[in-house]
Amino acid sequence: MKPILLMLLALVFMLIVVGQLRKKKQERDSMLQRMEYFSGNEDVAVGGGKKKKKKDITDIRELLLSKVRAIAAKWRKIHQSVNLDTKMQQADWPITGSEFQVIAAVISVVAAIIAFLMTLVPLNAIIAFGGMMFLCFMYLNIYISRRQAAFVNQLGSTLLMVSNALRAGFSFMQAMELISNEMDAPIGAEFRKVVNEINLGSTVEAALEGMGQRMKSPDFDLVVTAVLIQRQVGGNLSQVLDSISNTINERIRMKNEISSLTAQGRLSGLIVGGIPIFIVFMVLSSDPNYFDPMLESSTGKFLLGAAVALEVLAVIVIRKVVNIDV
């Protein structure tokens, strides 16, 4: 039991570190792209040696992706998940749902092999495989949620920029191109997708509705509705966007204020859920056989199951109390 807990904690820590490193890399790449855009020089911050190293890493990555795509193509013939394909679009990952399933399966198999080599117990390998698959899908959902939240936080200033561009004489298409070039991800990347779809022959309505389906934002759905009505019956779109921008900014301010007021409750939920796990981990570290008497009797198993169920219920109740919709 102890090696499994250590391995799971190490894997969770690794996922957190990888996520933070990827976020920093995206911020750095975004800054370099903006510098190259204004300078017209692709050698602004990347030297020859660094370019060669980056090319080697890219070649290795492309080789691995080609293997993953080959396996995913065979898997897609057996099982294809439209829901996962949609999630890949929401996460803005350049892979399909089948490819993500293959990558998650490979990572889970590696975790299972490590668990089996550490414990020589097949059951632990199965648990490690299932746990890693769960962590992969949990990381995907958390990443999508954070990306959608970042999109909403950028939406108010983006609408203000679009409104000012319309007042300056830009067309709506030119305003979207301005957003795609000037704004950071995720909203800049999403508007770039919309512009590309329109340039490839899609209608403005279809492109905006597709963006709304990816972002799942009621605020942006309101923007799409306003744009569609304006294109059909006319009106002052810049004034409407100003009003929506003020509403969104006020809602974000209220969310931040509520988040500050409920910080203590959220911390309580984290402590309530974390202390039992910490105590079990510390007890097993000192005495791996401490829970054997409970696991060997039906009453002990019932009490352990009841304790876990009550802990989960307490965390759910606390989350329901502190999560207030605005």
Gross morphology: globular
Strand tally is 0
Terminal CA distance reads: 43 Å
Query: Largest beta sheet, briefly?
Result: none
Number of H/I helices: 13
Average pLDDT? 80
Low-confidence stretches: 42-49
Q: Give the proportion of residues in helices.
A: over 70%
Please trace the helix and strand order, writing H or E for each element: HHHHHHHHHHHHH
SSE-based structural type:
mainly alpha
| Proportion of residues in β-strands | under 5%
Radius of gyration, taken over Cα atoms and rounded to an integer in Å: 25 Å
Overall description:
- The longest helix has 46 residues, at 122-167.
- Mean pLDDT is 80; it is low at 42-49.
- The two termini are 43 Å apart.
- The protein contains 13 helices and no strands.
- It is mainly α and 326 residues long.
Summarize the structure.
This protein is mainly alpha-helical.
What is the element layout, followed by pairings?
Blueprint: H1 2-39, H2 48-78, H3 82-91, H4 97-119, H5 122-167, H6 172-182, H7 187-199, H8 204-215, H9 218-233, H10 237-261, H11 263-286, H12 292-295, H13 298-322
